Amino acid sequence: MPSRGHSEKNTALTQMAQRLHPFREMIERFGLLLGKQAELAASFQPVDLDAFVVDEDAFLQGTPLVSFVQPDGFIHSFQHASKKIWPFMSVLFPALAPGLQTLGQLADTDPQWVGLGVQAMTHGDSAALEQAAALAGVAPDFLLMALRAVFAPCVTAHKKILTALAPMDLWRHPHCPVCGSETDMSNLENHPDPSEFLVSKSGELWHHCPSCTHRWRFIRLTCPSCGNAEHETLRKFSSEELPHEYFYACDKCQHYVPGINLVERIDVVDFDLAALGLIHLDAVAQSKGYKPLSPAPWVAMDFNDTP
Fold it and tell me: Global pTM?
C-alpha cells in the first residue's frame, strides 16, 4: 500500500484528534513525533551495511535482520537522527527535556556511549543498555524509549536493504522480522494472494511494527506475548459503537494488543498512524489491568486522568 503524503497524514491526524477528543493532546503530540520520524527516514540515503549477510536458519528461528548487521553500520544515521529527534521531543514533551539533553550531549561527544546505544538496539543487548543508562545517569526504561525514537528512522531507511536477502514470507514469529520490535497492532485482513494460507472469511492476522513500519503475517488465536493458544483464556473486547476496533487480551500473561477488522473495509488505512488512533482501546485495556505489548511511547502514558 503506498505511503500517504504529508498533507494527507496531517488531515488524518486532525480527524483522529477530533474523533477521540479526550485524547486530542496526546494524538497531536505523538502524531508530530511520528511525522518527524517518517520525514527523517525518507531523507536518509541508505548506506552499505558492511557485507550484510543473513544466516537463514537463525533468521527462521526468530533472529531479526538487524542482528546480522555490524552495529557500526548504523552509527552515522543514529548520530544524525539523535540531533533531530531528541530536541524535537524536548519541545513536545518538556518534562523529558533534561534527560534528552543529557543523551544528546553524550551522542555528540562520546563515541563509546553511542556504540553502546546502537548495540542495544541492533542486538537487543540488555547489558549494553544498562551500561549506557548508568553512564547517562538515566533509568534504563527512559533510555530505551529515547533510543527507540532515534533508531526507528534509521532502520526504516535501510529496510529495503535488510529485507532483500531474507525469506520474509517464511517468518512465523510474533516480533518484527526486521528490527525485533513487538507489534503495536494486529489487524484482520483479506489479501488477494494468501500464499499457502487458507482463505478465511474471518480474515488473516497481520502485525505492524511501530519502529520500522514493517508488516508481517502471524498466527490467529495465539498470544504474541507468551504463545498461549488456549481459546478460553484469550479474550476479545470491542464496543457496540465501533465493533471493527478491538483489542485482544491474554489472561495468562495479562498482555493486550489492539487492532482493526479490515476484512470488509475498502477505505485506505495508514498503518503507520492507525495504532495511535486506537489509543482509547489502550486506555480501556489498561483500566482492566492488562499490560501493553506494544513499545509505542503513548501506551506508557498514565490514562487514569483521561476519560
Answer: 0.90
Q: Which CATH number describes the domain made up of 169-300?
A: 3.90.1670.10
Q: Using an 8 Å Cβ cutoff, are 33 and 296 in contact?
A: no
pLDDT at 306 over 50: no
- 185-189 and 204-208 beta bridge pairing: antiparallel
Range 114-136 average pLDDT: 96
Q: Where are the domains of the chain?
A: 44-164, 169-300
Integer CA distances (angstroms), 245 to 48, 215, 231, 240, in order: 41, 18, 20, 10
CA-wise closest residue to 186 among 252, 271, 264: 271
- Whose CA is closest to 151, among 66, 214, 91, 270? 66
Which residues lie closer than 8 Å to 15 by C-beta, 6 or more apart?
Answer: none
Percent of the chain with pLDDT over 70: 92
